[in-house]
Design goal:
Two copies of one chain form a homodimer.
Chain A (H helix, E strand, L loop, with lengths): L4 H7 L3 H13 L11 E2 L9 H16 L1 H9 L8 H15 L8 E5 L1 H12 L1 E2 L5 E6 L18 E3 L3 E5 L3 E5 L2 H10 L2 E7 L11 H14 L3 E4 L22 E6 L10 E5 L2 H15 L5 H12 L1 H28 L5 E4 L6 E6 L6 H10 L2 E2 L1 E2 L7 E2 L14 E5 L4 H20 L4
Parallel strand pairs in A: 1-14, 4-5, 4-8, 5-16, 7-12, 8-9, 9-10
Antiparallel strand pairs in A: 2-11, 3-4, 6-7, 10-11, 12-13, 13-17, 15-17
Chain lengths: 434, 434
């Protein structure tokens, strides 16, 4: 069997595939648990929040109680843009909460938001009809590793290094290089701009001012600004700053039911202007035929009634906030005396740890942690593509001194994991560079 | 906004998109029902079979009754190849029923089988590392319209015209041109061979001899033979001939839970040799992140116990067989005296009607039927790509005298729909060609 170049690209051992294999290996734990009980701080699984689980279970019970309705629900193909009631309720919620001028024609539902972004990246990048290579601009690297391998065409990601601002003795925050982003837009054909907000992996939330400037750039250069809002407002609402959600016709907002407890239903949501929704629906029809309905049917009444906002505000956000505070306070004491900083935890379910001047890189730190049954993600995975000057993002040293942890794991795993991270960091800082 | 060439290709108004819009329009019925009550004989929705619905509803009830289990089920991402228990049970079923040498490593589950075929077609077609264009070979056109737009690259589908054998005064059957298929394999780099069996749209089932020869060709030329088994054995089992299912390591078998009543869960299944499963899982991880679990969890115990075979044999197949027989006997009387033939209905939920010598083409027939609220699919959609001699499949006259009907619609719609088809055909045959 000979694969096409498309086949070669998607089966190459890179980023997400290594991570998936690693997670699968960890899932087989504790069969080979030589290093102690597993501390799973890798991966992106959301926490299981009892109050949230009860809501979804009760909703499924209600669907099941309606015999004919359940039959219709499971027995019919949805259309490729999603259930009409779901799209209408969602559009009404956005209109009511935020005043956005959107209707059901501005919403497309896909089998998870990952594939929606996959569609978008490829609709917008690679050679165009005039033979020009259009690239995707990431105004702030590091970004979500899940994008790294998504483009069908090679070398279509161009990024800007952030400004790093230290705060106090324990935190730092990234700021987008907006001048750099504009310079890229001026100098080459860009197909789309992509940011996650809150950002996976760093927990950064782009400020309202940054978003306003990016949206203005997007409008000026007629290039969609894809904003991956998987952790954001109004649901799941894992945002700890006052930053406001934003949409205008230059924005393609990506959302999901995954982080509000339904990753298994694969329900991704895109809010965008009509032509973009039409392009996405068309691609979804060709590639996937139809969108799954169960997640939509479970969540729709809560979206229609606005209860999903209460669930986000009163159950999801406080849960993560408490976990975050606990982890931060643990780290402050465990990391004392070492030049480790944590990115301002402004949202999402991750923390981004920067081991400034660590003599070993994050891959080696990852290996030492894994040997002690602590799973984390090495920071270099989150730096991909090229910078505007042509240098490779993977050659950038900063993310090679960072790791991402998922702080939503059970408390005992987070505590033990952080202690072992502190121990290994102390050992590494004590060592000479090899 | 400027789309890439990928974007231009997937948003072009062709085949499946026209059909989707038409179906959406029909779904809005009867708001503008000027032609009488809707007879929906288009689309591919399976029938709602009460016995089958009861089984899935009871399974969902069982999942829901296990509070912790339900929480785990909906609250966790599956891996990109599917649930381990589902893959194991399925492999065991195949081994036990058919003696196939397969294990869980030979199974990958995706969000519907449409996207699995999309992945496969693109992993196998287009330019390869040596710059050669690899094409996909369809040994028997007409084929499923859902493939028509799936390739990222242009002009990568090459097909063979079937031999048409008349049987009696009312039927005909397609036979694959295996010499033609081998000639293509000899003359150019082919990435994969694709057949649906039972065939959508014709209801043909490739004979065991045809499959054996195609599998031998696939093995000899080291090219996977993708066999889309969406309607086939062991489930949903909508097969009315004695044709046996077949798998060997040269085969990539595609299946689904859609036609056994769960289209909404988007559960596609691929059975193939390990390297192909690894390539598919990798592509699925990058594009879709994870596979939905609800369909897998609902169906797994029935696959483990073999009950899914009973459901297929005792509920699904008899239901469709009775519908088929009723439709065939109606057509025999309604079409009497006209040179209309129906493809041997050997499986699937469609019938393929050939209006031999009809002075109008199938698009015009479709329009006249639509004006009378009868939705069918025009045959030309199912003839796409090029023949081996370079001529376009869309220029072939035969499918332009054919329509596809879904005979699984409610009896009153099928009856009224067929009467109106007979009336319009009679009018058309009486007319002079324009």
């Amino acid at each position: 069997m000979t694969l096409s170049s498309f086949g070669d690209k998607f089966t190459r051992k890179t980023g997400i595939l290594e991570l998936m294999e690693d997670l699968a290996e960890a899932a087989a734990f504790p069969a080979d648990a030589s290093g102690g009980p597993l501390c799973m701080l890798g991966g992106g699984n959301p926490a299981r929040i009892p109050e949230v689980e009860r809501v979804w279970r009760s909703r499924m019970g209600a669907l099941l109680a309606d015999e004919a309705g359940f039959g219709r629900l499971v027995g019919a193909y949805d259309s490729a843009d999603g259930m009409s009631a779901f799209r209408s309720s969602l559009a009404s919620l956005f209109k009511k909460e935020y005043g956005w001028e959107v209707g059901p024609e501005n919403v497309c539902v896909t089998n998870g938001s990952q594939i929606a972004v996959w569609y978008l990246l490829n609709l917008l990048s690679g050679p165009d009809a005039k033979g020009r290579r259009r690239r995707i601009l990431f105004p702030l690297m590091p970004e979500y590793v899940g994008y790294a391998d998504q483009a069908v065409h090679e070398d279509v990601f161009v990024s800007c290094k952030p400004r790093i601002e230290l705060s106090g003795d324990f935190h730092f925050k990234y700021y987008a290089d907006l001048e750099g982003a504009e310079a890229v837009l001026r100098s080459e054909p860009i197909g789309g701009i992509l940011v996650s907000r809150p950002t996976n992996p760093s927990g950064n939330v782009l400020t309202d001012a940054e978003v306003a400037r990016l949206a203005a750039l997007a409008a000026r250069y007629d290039v969609p600004l894809i904003t991956d809002n998987a952790y954001g407002l109004p649901f799941p609402g894992i945002v700890f700053t006052e930053a406001a959600p934003y949409w205008d016709p230059s924005i393609v907002l990506s959302m999901s039911l995954s982080k509000i407890g339904l990753p298994s239903t694969r329900t991704g949501i895109i809010v965008a202007r009509k032509e973009i929704i039409a392009a996405l629906s068309a691609t979804n029809a060709i590639a996937s035929l139809a969108t799954g309905t169960i997640g939509q049917a479970i969540a729709e009444p809560l979206i229609a009634s606005g209860e999903i906002l209460d669930l986000s505000r009163n159950a999801v956000k406080p849960y993560y906030l408490a976990k975050r505070d606990k982890a931060l306070s643990l780290m402050r004491s465990l990391f004392a005396g070492m030049p480790i900083r944590v990115h301002q935890s402004e949202g999402a379910i991750f923390m981004w740890l920067w081991f400034d001047g660590l003599p070993i890189d994050s891959r080696e730190l990852y290996r030492r942690l894994k040997a002690r049954s602590v799973m984390v993600l090495s920071g270099d995975y989150f730096s991909f593509g090229s910078f505007a000057d042509g240098t490779s993002c993977s050659a950038w040293d900063h993310p090679r001194r960072c790791i991402r942890i998922n702080y939503s794991s059970p408390d005992d795993q987070v505590e033990r994991g952080l202690s072992i991270i502190a121990e290994e960091a102390r050992k590494a800082y004590g060592e000479k560079p090899r």
